[in-house]
C-alpha cells in the first residue's frame, strides 16, 4: 500500500514560476536555489518542483509567447491531475501583470497558487491610476496565499492591498552555504571591498564611487571589486573621472561560481542601495563570513542589527558611506565581529536548508497531498 502511494505521488509536481534566466535577478536566484536543493532535501516520493518560465529573455513578442506557453502548461497540468500547485514569484511593474495572468489562470482552472512577493511595492503602487490599483488588489486577493519577505511588506499587503492577515505569511529567503574556502588575510595584504549587484543608481553606484574618492582611505592597501551587469562603461568613466580607477576593478556580470570565489576573497561587502527588500547578496556574504556595510532600507533593519551583524550607513550620503567603510576597515575587532555574527545569523535564519523547509511547510498547508509527501523531510527539520 505504501509503495503504491509513493509511486502515485512521484508523478505529482509543483511549478515554480518566474523568469528562468539570470535577468530575473534575485527572484530568479531564489527560485533556482529551491530547484537546486530539492534533490538533497526532498523525499523521492514527494511532489517535485519544476521551473515554469514566465517571460523568457528575448523580445517582448517572444515574452508573450513564453507567457502563453506557461498558461497552457498550467491547464495541461490541471487536466492531467498531476499539477498540485503553482508558486508564483512576483516583482514589480510588468512582472505584476505577467504573474497576475498566471494567478488568474490558476484560479480559473482550480489550481492553488502561492503569490511570493519579492519587492517593496509602495513606490510604484502609489502613482498607479485607480483601475490598475483595483487590478493589483484583485490579483493579490485571487491567490490562495501571499508570501512576503518581512514585516514591512506584510503590513503593505494587509493594510493597502486589503488581503486578510491570515492569508499573508512571512518566509525569509535563504541561500547556499559557502562554496569556496575562506581566504584569511595576511599582514600587509590589501583590504578587499566587494560590491555585487546590478550597476544602477538604485543600488547606490555613484554614491559608492564618490565615497571611495573621499580622503581617509589607504589606497595603497585597498582593492575594490564591483561585480554585476548594467552600464559598465558609464560607471567605469565615473571611476576614472573621480580618480579611483587605480584600485577599483569592474568584473561585469558573474555567475554563481564566480560570485562564490569573489565572496571567499572579500573582507567586506558594501551595498549602499536606496531601495531594496532583502538583497540575497547580503545573505550570501553572511554565508561566507564576510562583514557587511549596507543601508537600512526595506526589510534589512527588521532582520539585521546595526553594529552586530551589519554596519548601517545612510542612503545617498557620500560622507557617511565613506566613514562607515573606513570605520569597519580600520577596526579589526569590529570587522571580525561583523563577520562572525553574520555567519551565526546565516546559520540561524538564512541557510538554504531552513528556507527550503519553510517553503515545504507552505506547500504542505496550501497544496494538500503534495505537501504531505514531504513530511519525511520536515520531521527532521526543527527550525522555524
Tell me the fraction of residues in β-strands, as a range. 15-25%
Strand order of the largest sheet: 2-1-3-4-5-6
The Cα radius of gyration reads: 22 Å
Q: Work out the count of structural domains.
A: 2
What is the annotated CATH architecture of the largest domain?
3-Layer(aba) Sandwich
Oligomer: single chain
CATH homologous superfamily identity of the largest domain:
Glycogen Phosphorylase B
State the distance separating the first and last CA atoms. 32 Å
Give the CATH topology of the largest domain: Rossmann fold
Point out poorly predicted stretches: 1-9, 370-380
Number of helices: 17
Characterise this structure:
This protein is α/β, with parallel strands linked by helices. The protein has two domains: 2-174 and 351-378, 3-Layer(aba) Sandwich (Rossmann fold), CATH 3.40.50; 191-349, Glycogen Phosphorylase B (Rossmann fold, 3-Layer(aba) Sandwich). It is built from 17 helices and twelve strands. It has helices spanning 2-9, 25-41, 60-80, 94-109, 122-125, 130-142, 151-159, 205-212, 232-242, 256-265, 280-287, 300-303, 318-329, 332-350, 352-366, 369-372, 375-378, and strands spanning 13-18, 48-53, 83-90, 113-117, 145-148, 168-170, 191-196, 222-227, 248-252, 268-271, 291-294, 311-312. Strands 2-1-3-4-5-6 form a six-stranded parallel sheet, sandwiched between helices. A six-stranded parallel sheet has the order 9-8-7-10-11-12, sandwiched between helices. The longest helix has 21 residues, at 60-80. The model is unreliable at 1-9 and 370-380 (pLDDT under 50).
Amino acid at each position: 500500500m505504501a509503495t503504491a502511494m509513493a509511486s502515485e505521488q512521484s508523478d505529482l509536481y509543483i511549478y515554480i514560476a518566474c523568469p528562468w534566466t539570470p535577468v530575473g535577478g534575485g527572484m530568479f536566484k531564489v527560485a533556482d536555489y529551491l530547484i537546486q536543493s530539492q534533490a538533497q532535501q526532498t523525499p523521492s516520493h514527494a511532489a517535485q518542483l519544476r521551473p515554469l518560465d514566465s517571460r523568457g529573455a528575448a523580445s517582448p513578442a517572444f515574452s508573450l509567447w513564453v507567457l502563453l506557453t506557461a498558461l497552457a502548461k498550467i491547464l495541461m497540468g490541471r487536466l492531467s491531475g498531476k499539477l498540485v500547485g503553482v508558486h508564483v514569484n512576483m516583482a514589480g511593474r510588468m512582472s505584476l501583470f505577467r504573474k497576475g495572468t498566471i494567478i488568474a489562470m490558476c484560479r480559473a482552472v482550480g489550481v492553488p497558487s502561492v503569490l511570493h512577493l519579492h519587492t517593496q511595492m509602495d513606490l510604484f503602487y502609489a502613482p498607479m491610476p485607480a483601475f490598475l490599483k483595483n487590478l493589483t488588489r484583485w490579483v493579490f486577493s485571487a491567490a490562495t496565499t501571499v508570501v512576503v519577505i518581512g514585516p514591512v511588506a506584510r503590513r503593505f499587503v494587509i493594510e493597502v492591498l486589503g488581503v486578510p492577515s491570515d492569508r499573508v505569511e512571512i518566509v525569509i529567503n535563504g541561500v547556499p552555504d559557502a562554496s569556496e574556502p575562506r581566504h584569511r588575510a595576511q599582514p600587509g595584504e590589501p583590504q578587499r571591498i566587494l560590491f555585487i549587484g546590478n550597476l544602477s543608481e538604485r543600488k547606490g553606484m555613484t554614491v559608492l564611487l564618490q565615497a571611495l574618492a573621499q580622503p581617509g582611505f589607504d589606497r595603497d592597501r585597498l582593492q575594490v571589486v564591483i561585480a554585476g551587469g548594467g552600464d559598465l562603461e558609464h560607471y567605469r568613466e565615473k571611476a576614472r573621472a573621480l580618480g579611483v580607477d587605480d584600485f577599483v576593478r569592474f568584473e561585469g556580470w558573474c555567475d554563481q561560481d564566480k560570485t562564490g570565489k569573489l565572496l571567499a576573497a572579500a573582507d567586506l561587502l558594501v551595498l549602499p542601495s536606496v531601495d531594496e527588500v532583502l538583497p540575497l547578496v547580503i545573505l550570501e556574504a553572511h554565508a561566507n563570513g564576510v562583514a557587511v556595510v549596507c543601508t537600512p532600507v526595506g526589510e534589512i533593519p527588521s532582520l539585521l542589527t546595526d553594529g552586530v551583524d551589519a554596519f548601517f550607513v545612510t542612503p545617498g550620503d557620500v560622507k557617511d558611506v565613506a566613514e562607515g567603510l573606513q570605520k569597519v576597515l580600520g577596526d579589526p575587532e569590529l570587522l571580525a565581529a561583523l563577520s562572525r555574527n553574520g555567519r551565526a545569523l546565516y546559520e540561524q535564519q538564512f541557510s538554504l536548508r531552513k528556507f527550503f523547509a519553510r517553503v515545504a511547510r507552505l506547500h504542505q498547508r496550501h497544496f494538500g497531498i503534495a505537501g504531505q509527501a514531504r513530511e519525511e523531510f520536515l520531521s527532521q527539520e526543527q527550525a522555524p
